């Protein structure tokens, strides 16, 4: 075989391999992973740490299990400050994260690469601006999300939300809502939406956000966690917590907002809660 022919064969093989890796490898790897049975121990952890899981129809339970299986295969978990990340922790995080995509697309989390878990709330040094002066403040956090594909969680806060399904806070839902918000490149409280849906979202959410800030300004009882009034990105994340944790409350207080979230997440937690 002549040198030009050998070169052409190797070039064709290289191009074919590159095309397979870029466009087909991920799907092939996922299909291979999902041929493995879902571990019974993981199902037990789902039942004990994701209260909405038993309320899902059987077909959605299976979808959630498949997404959890892929999540635990593809995402790296790291324990911080000596915390040991066991299967119960991993399944609890994956289960709540995948509730947000169970009726959407698991591909929404393709950009998420690592989850760092602290045993309790942790301190960070964060930049702080006061006019033209930029300083550093010491902050205590329960979680944070990064556009670079990293999520940080405090397990004590995660466990509190997981064990109390009607609790106000669920830091896992909160931080993974931020990851969905990042899908269009920035966390601005408006995840990727189609034309008409985007317009309705902007109008409805702006009114609701202004309503929340107005009620807090006049020290009235807030219909949502006040942290949601800090900026639109936090408004969306806090709304997501309330949507899954206290669906009936949100539906009564803000039916239009609730309807938009039902459309976005393609699920109605209030209806599931009545099953």
Write a compact overview of the structure shown.
The chain has 275 residues and is α/β, with parallel strands linked by helices.
Keywords, separated by commas or semicolons:
alpha/beta; globular; 55% helix; 12 helices; 13% strand; two-stranded antiparallel ribbon; 275 residues; four-stranded mixed beta sheet; Collagenase (Catalytic Domain)
Description:
Helices cover 55% and strands 13% of the residues. It has a domain at 188-275: Collagenase (Catalytic Domain), CATH 3.40.390. The chain starts with a helix and ends with a helix. It is of the alpha/beta class and 275 residues long. It is globular, with a radius of gyration of 21 Å. Helix 5 links the parallel strand 1 (76-79) and strand 2 (114-118). The strands form two sheets. The protein has a four-stranded mixed β-sheet with strand order 1-2-6-5. A two-stranded antiparallel sheet has the order 3-4. The protein has twelve helices and six strands. The model is unreliable at 12-23 (pLDDT under 50). It has helices spanning 3-23, 25-34, 40-49, 58-74, 87-99, 155-163, 171-181, 195-217, 232-245, 247-253, 255-265, 269-273; strands at residues 76-79, 114-118, 122-130, 133-141, 143-145, 150-154.
């Amino acid at each position: 075989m002549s040198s030009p022919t050998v070169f052409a064969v190797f070039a064709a093989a290289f191009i074919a391999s590159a095309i397979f890796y870029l466009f087909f490898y991920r799907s092939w790897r996922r299909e291979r992973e999902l041929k493995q049975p879902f571990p019974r121990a993981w199902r037990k952890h789902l039942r004990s740490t994701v209260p909405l899981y038993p309320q899902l129809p059987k077909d959605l339970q299976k979808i959630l299990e498949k997404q959890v299986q892929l999540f635990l295969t593809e995402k790296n978990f790291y324990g911080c400050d000596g915390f040991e990340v066991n299967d119960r922790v991993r399944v609890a995080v994956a289960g709540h994260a995948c509730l947000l995509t169970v009726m959407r697309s698991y591909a929404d989390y393709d950009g998420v690469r690592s989850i760092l878990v602290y045993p309790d709330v942790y301190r960070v040094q964060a930049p702080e601006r006061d006019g033209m002066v930029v300083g550093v403040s010491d902050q205590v956090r329960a979680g944070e999300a990064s556009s670079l594909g990293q999520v940080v969680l405090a397990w004590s806060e995660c466990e509190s939300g997981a064990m109390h399904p009607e609790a106000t806070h669920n830091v896992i839902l909160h931080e993974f809502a931020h990851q969905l918000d990042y899908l269009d490149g920035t966390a601005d409280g408006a995840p990727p939406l189609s034309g008409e849906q985007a317009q309705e979202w902007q109008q409805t959410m702006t009114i609701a956000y202004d309503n929340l800030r107005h009620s807090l300004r006049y020290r009235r009882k807030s219909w949502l966690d006040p942290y949601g009034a800090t900026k639109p990105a936090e408004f969306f994340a806090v709304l997501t917590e309330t949507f899954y944790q206290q669906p009936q409350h949100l539906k009564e207080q803000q039916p239009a907002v609730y309807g938009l979230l039902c459309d976005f997440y393609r699920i109605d937690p209030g209806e599931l809660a009545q099953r």
